[in-house]
Amino acid sequence: MSVSVATGAYAISFGALSVASGLDIWQTMALSLLVFSGGSQFAFIGVIASGGTAAAAAMTSTFLGLRNGFYGVGLAPVLRPLGGARRAWAAHLTIDESTAVALAQPADDLGARRAGFWWTGLGVFVLWNAVTVVGAMVGSRIGDPADWGLDAAAAAAFLGLVWPRLASRRAQAVAGASAILALVLTPVAPAGVPILAAAVIAILAGWKAPRAKDEVPE
Amino acid sequence: MWMWVAIVGAGLLAWATKYAGHVVPERLLDNPRVHRIAAYVTVALLFALFAVQAFTSAGAVVLDARVAAVAVAALLLWRKAPFIVVVLVAAVVAAGLRALGWG
Asked: Cα–Cα distance between A120 and A71 in angstroms, integer?
């Protein structure tokens, strides 16, 4: 229940902000259908909104989707054995929510874990795509996005997405350094590059293991 | 046209990333350093996106109504407000300040 309310809220924000960033309704729908990962989709439209190229948008979106690859590693033993087409579908449905619900079930109850994955994944997929359309239609019916504060709403959306991952000192340091680097590069580098450059900070921060009490975010 | 290429490309890359996790032998990805870097990539990119969206316009650092809006958003997140409330209040704060002629 709480998963579906949260999903609806993300999807309506995404739909409206995507249209505000300059994409049309069909492109917005295609992103939800094909990319199907909230963070990656917000990143794609964020780069476009800041004037970045389509290629930079696709690259940033892909980097933000890397964590889904690690979710797959955790899910593979739960879903095994899985045939070709079903595995392709399972991969598409591998997102924050489906992984969290599946792995929250008892470890010795594989049936509950599988059910959690498939029902959450399919439910979020249907809801996410349906509500994206609603958000996109709302977004396309208003005039200048800035008059409605949609640029500020997009900034707040990114803050909301990253907030739960800022628990540790090192994560906060990574965030601060990434913001400074992005702002310093903004006047001198092509749009999109200041965002991608933050990945370098992530590599530097992740290279050495933190002390035991400084936990790495999920 | 290029936008569509990028959208379909981003979709294929997103799917390939997810699929790789399901089929790549566990020991290849089960490296603490790779895990840490992947986790920090998420934090770094999302926060850089936040900074660019909140404090820049057309290739320059610009401080306007968005600053007040994201300050309120941070306060709401700290008070554990739901995502949709945070996003809506930020929009209302920025739109309100602009209607009053500030930023």
From this structure: 14
Contacts 24+ apart (CB under 8 A), A83-89: A87/B19, A87/B22, A87/B23, A88/B15, A88/B19
The ranges assigned to domains in chain A are: 1-163, 166-218
**Quick check: A82 contacting B, CB < 8 Å?**
yes
How many whole angstroms separate alpha carbon A213 and alpha carbon B94? 39
Cβ pair A136, A16 in contact under 8 A: yes
Structure tokens at A115: 């059910």
Q: Locate the domains of chain B by residue range.
A: 63-103
Residues of A in contact with B86 (CB under 8 A): 156-157, 159-160
**B49:A60 CB<8 A:** yes
pLDDT in tens, A6-36: 788 889 889 999 999 999 999 999 999 999 9
ipTM of this complex: 0.91
